[in-house]
Amino acid sequence: MVLPTANPTKSYWIEAAESPLRDFRSSEALPEETDVAIIGGGYAGASTAYWINKVCDRTKLTWGQLRPHAYSRYAKWSKRFGPHGAMELIEHEMAHLSAFRNLSEEENIAEEVCLKFGETFDAAMTDEAWTRLKGALEAMRRDHGDDHEIVKVCRVIEDAHQAEEFTQMKGALAAVVHPAGQILQAHTPVMDVSARDVDGWIKVKTERGAIRARSVVHTTNRWASHLLPEFSNLILPDRGTIAAIKAPPGFIKHTGAQHWDSVVNNYHLQLPPPYNTIIIGGARQLLVHKPDDCFPNDKEDQQIDGVAAFYASWGISDVAGSPDAVPAGLSKEVNEGGCWTGIQTESADDFPFVGAVPERPGHYIAAGFAGHGMPRVLGSAAHVAPLVLESLGVDYSKPLLAASFPPLPQPFRTTAERIERLKDTNLNALAEEYKQSCAESAKKPFCNTARVMSVLTTPPSWDDRHQQVMAQL
Fold first, then answer.
1. In angstroms, rounded to a whole number, what is the distance separating the alpha carbons of residues 383 and 377?
2. In the chain, what is the straight-line distance between the N-terminal and C-terminal CA atoms, in Å?
3. Centroid of chain to Cα 77
4. Which of 67, 170, 175, 264 could be a cystine partner for 157, CB 3.0 to 4.6 Å?
5. In the structure, what pLDDT confidence band is assigned to residue 394 with cuts at 50, 70 and 90?
6. Closest Cα to residue 175, out of 185, 166, 187?
C-alpha cells in the first residue's frame, strides 16, 4: 500500500505561509454523499475544484515556479512525436502564462499568491550544456520558423560577460531567455474506493468514515496507485530536495536555471516581499553521487545528508558579485522549513496521466506530472472538469479562461492502450539506467569541486550547523 508519510520534512512554502487552510475542515463529520469527491489537496486537486466551481457558475496550497519548457525539450520531444507533436506540448505549457495572468486578475489574487511575470533563463555553465540548449532552440527555429509566436519570445545571450550579468550566475558561458511566472477536508486520507454501484454511487472510505460520490477525481500524483493499482508501474517515486536561502529584497533579477549537462542542474526563484527568500532546487552536483537517495525513493520524512550544507553555500559559490553582497545561509532552521525533501514523481513515459480512468466508470485522474506540474496542471484540470460534469449530466458553459488552453496533448491522455503498454515497465531497469546516468555525470569536474567533496566527506552524524560551516570553507 503506497501512502505518503504522516510526518514529511517541513517545507518553507507551508511553514512561511501559515495558512488557515493547512488544517481546515469544513465540518466535524464527513457528509454522507457528494456529487464529486476530489482526492488530493495540492495544485491539481485545487485546480480541478476551481474549474468545476467556475464552469458551474456557482483547497494544502503550495507555490511553485511557472516555468514552461519553451524550447529546451523540443529536440527530445520532436524525435518521439514529430515537430507538430513537440510544439503541441510546448504550446500547452506556454498557455499557462496567459491563463495564470488572467486568472489572477479575474480572482484578484496576484499579491496573495506572490504571482509575478517576467523572464527566466537557462544558463549554460559548460560547453556541453550550451550545445544541448542552443541545439534545441535551433531545431525549433528550423521546423517552425523565426516568426512562430513561441520562437519569437526566446532569445539568446552568447556573450559570456552579458550572460553572467543577466543571469547573475558566476561562470555562465551563455544563456537562453524566455517568458515565465512564479507563483477542504485536511488530514483525511482515503483508504479505499469502490467501483460504481448499480445506483451510480462510488464509496470512498477514509479514516474518518465513508462518503458516497457520483464521481471521484484522483489528484494524488505519486500516490495515485494506492487507490488505482494499475498505475503502480506507471507513476514512480522521484525524491527531490529544495532549500530556502536568505536574501535582500529584489536581489534576483530573473528566475532561472543553471545547466552543466543533461542531468546536473539547479533552478531558483526569489519570492517578493515580505518573504524575499530565494527558493532553490536541484543540488544535482551532489546528488549524482547519491542516486539511491533520489530514484526510486519515497522517504520524504528524511533529509538527504549534506544537502542543507550544499545549498547554504550556493550564494557564495555560484552567484556573481561581491562575497559580502551575495545571499548566504538558510531562511529558516533546516528542519523548520529551511531545507526539505518531497516526492515529485516520474512517469513511465515522461508525461502525466489526465482524463477518465479506463474500465473505472466515474473515476478521473490528473497525476504523474514528473516534477513539472506548474505549467501543466491548470490546463490539465480544465480538461478534466468538463468530463466530470458531463458524467453527472450537468449543464455548463466553458469559461473564456478555460477555453484559452489548446487541446490536451495526446501524450497526456489516459487511454487503455497507454496503460496496457506501460503496465509491465521494468522498474529495476529504470533505476539502473538512472544510476548509470548519475555515474557518468559524477565523473565530470563540476561534480567534484571542493564544495561538493567537502560535503561528501562530512560525517552524516554532524549536525546541520557544522555542515553549513564546512560547506563554506
1. 10
2. 44
3. 19
4. 175
5. confident
6. 166
Query: Structural domains in the chain?
Result: 31-63+184-236+348-430 (3.50.50.60)
As a dihedral over the C-alpha atoms of residue 339, residue 345, residue 351, residue 354, rounded to 10 degrees, the angle is -110
Residue 204 belongs to what H/E stretch? strand 202-206
Compute the Cα dihedral for 227, 232, 235, 241 and give only its sign: positive
Amino acid (one-letter) located at 244: A
For residue 259, which of 127, 138, 80 has the smallest C-alpha distance?
Answer: 127
Residue 139: band (very low, low, confident or very high) from pLDDT cuts 50, 70, 90 = very high
Cell of 23: 488544517
* Of 306, 268, 341, 307, residue with least CA distance to 121: 268
Task: Supply the angle between the helices 74-107 and 377-391 in degrees, to the nearest 10.
Answer: 70
What residues contact residue 238 under an 8 Å CB cut-off, 6+ apart?
294, 295, 296, 297, 343, 344, 345, 346, 370, 371
Tell me the C-alpha to C-alpha distance, in Å, between residue 452 and each of 171, 262, 287, 331: 17, 19, 10, 21
Burial class for 228, CB neighbours closer than 10 Å (0-12, 13-18, 19+): buried
DSSP string for residues in 303-350: PPTTHHHHHHTHHHHHB-S-TTTS--SBSS-GGGTTEEEEE--EETTS
Least trusted range by pLDDT, from 230-239, 398-407, 410-419: 398-407
**Whats the size of the chain, residue-wise?**
473
Grid coordinates 483547497 are at which residue?
Answer: 59
The whole model's pTM is what? 0.82
- Give the span between the Cα atoms of 219 and 469, in whole angstroms: 41
Q: Which three cell numbers stand for residue 296?
A: 526510486
Statement: residue 190 has pLDDT above 70: yes
Which pLDDT score is estimated for 55?
64
Report for 5-19, 58-72, 100-114, 402-416: range of highest mean pLDDT: 402-416
Q: Cα(229)–Cα(225) distance, rounded to whole angstroms? A: 5
Task: Kindly list the distances between the CA atom of residue 327 and the CA atoms of 35, 159, 276, 337, in Å, as whole numbers in the listed order.
Answer: 49, 25, 11, 17
